[in-house]
Task: inverse folding
């Protein structure tokens, strides 16, 4: 299974039209066959980064389905939609992702993904993108051993987030070396503490062990705080 | 057919190792089946842009072939190769491209050389354009109807010719984005292009350089020189 990750630089005055085009256009059109489903529609939270950025993630069955979708956008039934959306954004940066071996999200049953736009509460994700200085495979294994397993083992009241997916870039579609974590924030109080309180990490105790040990693999990453729309299929 | 376009920032001290890895590793590994072929291995000419950058273009039979290749790199027989190549470069920026209707490149994967045969280097001007918001389709139409015909009008005196024209595939790079692979035929003409101002008449209405401003005013040209063994020259 492939995941199409797109970062849209939206024209500010057209943000509502853009969102409607994804809800009433992209999501509904994809629902008509079994090739792909929109999973997330996420707004990069104002006040935490760049303005008017939207992240969408679409699950695609396989490479053949991806090629069919690209053809539909280029010269098929999605051309008019693509043209209209193109006028609502400055640009879009896309990449295709594969789940890594330990990612909780692997295959998705596309038929179970909601496509009716039903509304729900909002949720917040921390999307981390890391660029390792160590070999990519070693970095991904380190995330498994030292981050994912320890985070999952924490008592619920101490868990700031849940790691829902970990991806690497499918060859040739973006930057390498790079890996991505999709993490749902569970506890906004702990997030506020993380952001507002300086922390001295003890290298012998987790999470200090992870923070210190991680420097052997990378010191460059970026976190984005992304808020789901109220109709985003996943939230 | 799809095209895998990669820009590698190579570790200067390992540039020869990197080149060998592509010639003896990538090119020959791909030759074992019908999914893909390396087409071009190109050095960004020193003195015309960033240092130690290599551009490779690999042709892929289709989306399924790309997915198989990506799997081989991620966890298959090419993962060790990828790890070795990563140690020879700082990073790589990849994208998938689809041929535009007016692209002249017509590749039969079975005919692409994979034996590393040597030839004279060739120079390419690779132009990447970012059309204005909502103008991508109009730009592509105009580029095919006007620009490509303009370049091909006088074959005997041409400065460059379009060898391939691409649009970045949705979900695999920036959109909208158009890339032209243009072979340089006239080195003196290239020097004139670089050292003289554009003639005034070319900036008037009715000329491509003027009229195309409606669709785009942002692009980047790279001068890329083929390696002596690059399958396409």
Result:
């Amino acid at each position: 299974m492939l995941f199409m990750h797109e970062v849209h630089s939206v024209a500010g005055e057209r943000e509502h039209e853009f969102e409607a085009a994804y809800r009433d256009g992209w999501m509904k059109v994809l629902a008509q066959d079994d090739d792909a489903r929109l999973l997330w529609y996420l707004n990069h939270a104002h006040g935490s980064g760049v303005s008017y950025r939207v992240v969408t993630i679409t699950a695609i069955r396989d490479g053949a389905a991806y090629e069919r979708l690209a053809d539909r956008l280029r010269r098929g039934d999605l051309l008019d939609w693509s043209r209209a959306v193109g006028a609502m954004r400055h640009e879009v940066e896309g990449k295709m992702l594969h789940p890594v071996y330990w990612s909780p999200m692997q295959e998705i049953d596309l038929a179970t993904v909601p496509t009716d736009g039903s509304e729900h509460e909002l949720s917040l994700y921390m999307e981390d993108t890391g660029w390792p200085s160590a070999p990519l495979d070693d970095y991904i294994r380190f995330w498994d051993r030292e981050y994912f397993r320890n985070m999952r083992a924490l008592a619920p009241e101490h868990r700031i987030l849940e790691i829902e997916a970990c991806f690497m870039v499918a060859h040739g579609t973006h930057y390498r070396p790079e890996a991505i974590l999709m993490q749902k924030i569970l506890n906004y109080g702990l997030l506020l503490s993380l952001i507002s309180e300086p922390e001295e990490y003890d290298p012998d105790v987790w999470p200090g062990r992870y923070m210190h040990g991680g420097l052997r693999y990378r010191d460059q990453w970026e976190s984005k705080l992304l808020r789901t729309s109220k109709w985003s299929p996943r939230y | 057919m799809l095209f895998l376009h990669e820009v590698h920032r190579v570790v200067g001290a390992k540039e020869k190792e990197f080149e060998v890895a592509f010639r003896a590793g990538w090119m020959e590994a791909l030759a074992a089946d019908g999914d893909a072929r390396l087409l071009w291995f190109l050095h960004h000419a020193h003195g015309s842009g960033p240092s130690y950058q290599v551009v490779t273009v690999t042709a892929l039979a289709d989306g399924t072939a790309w997915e198989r290749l990506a799997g081989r790199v991620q966890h298959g027989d090419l993962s060790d190769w990828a790890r070795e190549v990563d140690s020879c470069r700082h990073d790589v920026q990849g994208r998938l491209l689809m041929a535009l209707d007016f692209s002249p490149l017509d590749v039969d994967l079975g005919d692409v050389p994979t034996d590393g045969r040597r030839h004279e280097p060739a120079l390419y001007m690779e132009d990447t354009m970012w059309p204005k918001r909502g103008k991508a389709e109009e730009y592509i139409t105009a580029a095919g109807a006007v620009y490509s015909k303009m370049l091909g009008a006088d074959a005997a005196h041409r400065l460059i010719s379009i060898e391939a024209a691409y649009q970045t595939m949705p979900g695999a790079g920036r959109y909208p984005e158009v890339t032209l692979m243009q072979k340089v035929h006239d080195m003196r003409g290239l020097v004139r292009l670089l050292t003289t101002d554009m003639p005034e008449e070319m900036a008037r209405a009715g000329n491509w350089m003027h009229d195309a401003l409606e669709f785009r005013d942002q692009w980047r040209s790279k001068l890329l020189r083929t390696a002596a063994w690059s399958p396409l020259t």
